[in-house]
Amino acid sequence: MSDVIFLSDVRLSFPHIADPQRKVNEQTGKERISYNCEFLMPLNHAGFQQFMARYAQLAQDTWKEHAQQVMQMIQADRKSRCFGMGTEKVNKKTFKPYDGYDGNVFITAGSDRMPQIIRQDGSPVEPGNVMEAQQLARAMYGGCRVNAAIKPWPQKNTHGNGIRCDLIALQFHKDDTAFGEGGSPDVTAMFGAVTAAPAMFGAAPAAPAMPAMPSFLTPQ
Fold this sequence. Notes:
- By secondary structure, the chain is of the alpha+beta class.
- The protein has a single domain (5-174), classed as CATH 2.40.50.140.
- The protein is 17% helix and 33% strand.
- The protein contains three helices and seven strands.
- The protein has helices spanning 46-63, 67-76, 130-138; strands at residues 5-24, 31-41, 83-85, 105-111, 116-118, 145-157, 160-174.
- Strands 3-4-2-1-6-7-5 form a seven-stranded mixed beta sheet.
- A hairpin with a 2-residue loop joins β6 (145-157) and β7.
- The longest helix is centred in the N-terminal third of the chain and has 18 residues, at 46-63.
- The model has no long low-confidence stretch (mean pLDDT 88).
């Protein structure tokens, strides 16, 4: 079974690709840089099914006879896993799932360096071509469709047990409705053309002429 999972034609959400997300550890004061995003897809998406199969295999290899118990603990704690049902991602202001999440599943992936950016012709952007990589990354907005390569891995350390996912590569696939559009009411019908307002105090007085320079300051 391949370590790397290919996600084809999935929707991109909360992208931090061109510019990384920066967080400071309150205990250590160290800054953590993360290029990350989330991918949305139907539950029956082939990539998600492959991801779950890989997760089960990793759990078996890592926790052996305790695999099922650990997986149940991970499932119960959303912070310990990089995947979930879209209904779990609730906007704290509206108390509803974020745009595009309801009815889908999500996978969160990240890396401490920018993922490899793939051009639409399938060729990779060269590692030294930072400007092109950032330009293509900025074209990937929340809601568009992308192809991605991710690599799940098991977390087993002092911070606990979990399942995480590395972001390996990303490619723009096609446009879709940007998340957040349609959230504001259309009030354009309330406005009309602006006509020039009459002057309240008449024309402004002309500016005074500059006084002539003294002869001894005049250039010879």
